[in-house]
Amino acid sequence: MRRTPPFFLHHQYMRTNKIHNLRNAGIFQYGSNELTTFEKRLTRYFAREYKRHKNSQKRAVEMDYGPLALAPDCLAEQHYDQGLEIFRAFLDHETMSYTMAFFDETPEKAVASELSLAEAQARKFNLIAQRMQLTGDEQLLNIGCGFGYFESFLLDTYKNLRISATTQSKEQYDFILNRTKDPSDILSSERFRLFFGNVDASSPDRWGRKKYQLVFSVGLLEQINNIGLLFEIINELLAENGSMFHHLIVSRDLIPQFLDPDKTLIGKYFPGGKVLPFSALQYNPKGFILKDAWFINGMNYWKTLDGWHANFWNNLHQIYPDKIDLESVRHWNNYFVLCKAMFWPENGLAYGNGQYRFCRTA
């Protein structure tokens, strides 16, 4: 006859029992031999794919045809709006930032860094602010603001700055809206404004035509199909002599299948997403001139994802099975492993993050 464990062991017993049930379903926890082996196999696969295309003939990447985004509604529904409790389980609570954290310039220092996720995210915020060349009295627009903590950083750092932010996620919008109602939260400031909805041709009329000195995005362009059209829309949002800045996942070389979400697992986990080569945005689009471009070593994103993966399993008992089901656990577990395996090859040189600063010319 099974006996109930003492009260002080009950929670540990329940956690162990949940993990045992997941193992029986073929879902292995972070750090397990089975999952580590699976991650190594995926890493070898990505390394082979990268080498296969590394010396292939270069070709231009078409970026100015078709719809602005391939699956904006599916992306919001199937990824960003899967439940706030999931994101709380793996993101750091200080910044709730769902993009690469910046640990260090070199891959070795990035992996060895003892910075917390929150500290590394704040370091990324500071790096982007520097590269955007802010003076501190601009009016900014962030297209795709996540949970709003970069806005918090900017408003706190630059006391005369004004910033508007957009999101297509209903859960992110509600989260930020609740923050604006808290007088102690800096997002309650009159210097902040929030918009809901996708970017499209009507955005300048909705968000402010010729209003901003800088329009920027962090983790947006991966979900944009027609980048030329996006830049035309941004041009309409910018005041004279304005600029734009973009931070996104890139590959160092052209990997053709990563330009089509139907040909890789990207489409399963991130509908409509693609990975552009770093060189693709190093040109002067109509109405703009490229001023600077930077490649950030992918081991920064590997370490970020590894931290999220560990957090997910450390906090899983709080959300499974009450708030997410077994298949959701499988989905996110595989997602973290897949993404980590992508950034490891070539010591972080195969895939990383690209940052680009453009100035408006017309």
Structure explained in plain terms:
- This protein is of the alpha/beta class.
- 42% of the residues lie in helices and 16% in strands.
- The chain has 13 helices and 8 strands.
- The chain has helices at residues 7-24, 33-54, 72-80, 84-90, 107-112, 117-131, 149-157, 170-180, 203-207, 227-237, 266-269, 299-314, 326-343; strands at 139-143, 162-167, 192-196, 212-218, 238-251, 276-277, 288-296, 351-360.
- Helix 7 links the parallel strand 1 (139-143) and strand 2 (162-167).
- Helix 12 (299-314) packs antiparallel against helix 13 (326-343).
- The longest helix has 22 residues, at 33-54.
What does this entry show, briefly?
By secondary structure, the protein is an alpha/beta fold.
Catalogue the unreliable spans. none
What's the CATH H-level superfamily name?
Vaccinia Virus protein VP39
The helix fraction, in percent, is 40-55%
- Percent of residues in beta strands: 15-25%
Major sheet size, sense and barrel closure: 8 strands, mixed
Using only C-alpha atoms, the radius of gyration works out to: 21 Å
**Overall 3D form:** globular
What number of structural domains do the residues give? 1
The count of helical stretches stands at: 13
The oligomerization state is: single chain
